[in-house]
Amino acid sequence: MGRKVAILIEDHYQVLEAWYPYLRLREEGIDTVFVGTGRKEEYKSKEGYPAKQELSIKEVNPYDFSGVAIPGGYAPDLLRREAKVVEFVGDIYRAGKLVAAICHGGWVLISAGILKGKKATAFYAIKDDIVNAGVEFLDKEVVVDGNLITSRNPYDLPAFCREIIKFLKDK
Questions:
Q1: What is the mean pLDDT of the chain?
Q2: pTM to 2 decimals?
Q3: How confident is the model at residue 77 (pLDDT cuts 50, 70, 90)?
Q4: What is the CB-side half-sphere exposure of residue 153 using CA atoms within 13 A?
Q5: DSSP per-residue codes, the chain
Q6: Which domain holds residue 52?
Q7: In whole angstroms, what is the distance from residue 105 CA to residue 102 CA?
């Protein structure tokens, strides 16, 4: 299939929202890569579970990837502070490739300026943030709007991954 998805990682990531897609996509033959901010080699989840950075955002080229997935937790607040992360997500989106975000991952989408006029969902605590970014908010387990796929929380991971896999296989 030749597909590769960057999964953005930083401290305080939500463990299931990072590892479930990382492993589930691999089961489908899709290469997944933890891409960190480059601040360090290993990031800890909110619960302390480690994830090793396989590539730094400074080393990646959006043209080498079929898409990007952004887990939630508090990591998105750190991720969006990195200009290279925001640029990477925006470039992937504008190329028509997969951009998937779950939970607080919507914060990175806001910073990338890609939500205006779109339909999306997110964790309820950032609903106002994404609505103010121009989104039509839908309280559903997964929302697909073009190349943008969003979900609310870990309970939505099966639907989230199903839509990511479907998108990648249809391309």
A1: 97
A2: 0.97
A3: very high
A4: 8
A5: ---EEEEEE-TTB-HHHHHHHHHHHHHTT-EEEEEE-SS-SEEEBTT--EEE-SEEGGG--GGG-SEEEE--BTHHHHHTT-HHHHHHHHHHHHTT-EEEEEGGGHHHHHHHT--TT-EE---GGGHHHHHHTT-EE--SSEEEETTEEEE-SGGGHHHHHHHHHHHHHH-
A6: 4-170
A7: 5
Structural domains counted in the chain: 1
As given in the structure block, the two tokens for residue 138 are 């839908």
Burial of 98 per CB tally in 10 Å (0-12, 13-18, 19+)? buried
Our answer to whether residue 104 is catalytic in this structure is yes
The tokens of 149 are what?
Answer: 């796929």
> Catalytic residue at 12?
no
92, 68 Cβ separation under 8 angstroms? yes
Backbone angles phi, psi at 4, to 5 degrees: -140, 130
- Distances, alpha carbon 116 to alpha carbons 52, 104, 132, in Å: 33, 17, 9
Q: Which of 24, 104, 118, 152 is catalytic?
A: 104
Beta-ladder partners of 108? none
Check residue 2 and give its pLDDT: 74
Catalytic residue among 30, 89, 102, 103: 103
Report the CATH number at residue 153: 3.40.50.880
The answer to whether 37 and 71 have CB atoms below 8 angstroms apart is no
